[in-house]
Amino acid sequence: MTKIIQISDTHIVPEGALAYGQVDTAAALAETVATINRLLPQIGPVDLVIVTGDLTEHGTPEEYDRFKMLMADLDLPYRVLPGNHDRREPMRESFADAQWMPRTAPLDWQIDFEDFAVVGLDSLTESAAHGTLEPATLSFLTDALSGLGDKPAIVGFHHPPFAVGIRAMDAQNLHDADSMGTALSLHSGQVRLVCGHLHRSIAGLFSGSLCQVCPGTSHAVTLDQRANAGNSLTKEPGGMLLHEWRDDGFLTHLIPVGAFPGPYPFLGVS
Ligand SMILES: [Fe+2]
Ligand SMILES: [Fe+2]
Fold first, then answer.
1. Which of 24, 172, 216, 224 could serve as 199's disulfide partner, Cβ 3.0–4.6 Å?
2. Cα 197 to ligand 1 centroid, rounded to whole Å
3. Domain containing 184 — which CATH number?
């Protein structure tokens, strides 16, 4: 049974700094890695971890080095995608040793497992917060899906393709998402869309497929749907997602970051 874990929006900053002066994102990523490693005997085997963007806060080589140092303790292979806080060329350079990292063009990749394939798309718009899929990425998606036939696919990227009522974030979601919808509509197999950027667990339909937004590992975008709401963070618990293929369909589990008391047997319950 194929399983992958998705983490997102780790927002690593230089050592000694807090993201936005508030959040120790490195400690949260270390706790996320520890959570995954601790859970593996209960949920494994897991085939891959994907990181759906905003690995770093500023996209500097120093921040990518710190991200990789923290991820080095992970007992699973992982692949990354860029978010609006990342920078394409420093990120490409930082992962130059990875065989899956494209040497040129957008940071798109594909990996095939027994039950489904994972297609990673680069939605980064350099010097802008919103997302776009360049023509090369749309072609990559079309070619990847056509090559899969009716095999199911998880398609991952950073920017959500729909609005969620948080105005400041909706303005910077995936623009021209209809182009992606057109490419997805040509696929005969099941599709699960997974993204990040909102630092919240949100699910909705897009182009006939379920799109699941992943929580951040360290902090949330504030859930405030009022018209005059500012753009802010709230220190809600971090989380991640486990996507698996079970009984001929995708299933997604939300897993909080951290260690919690238990398990306790349900004594007396039959
Ligand atoms: Fe983010
Ligand atoms: Fe983002």
1. 216
2. 4
3. 3.60.21.10
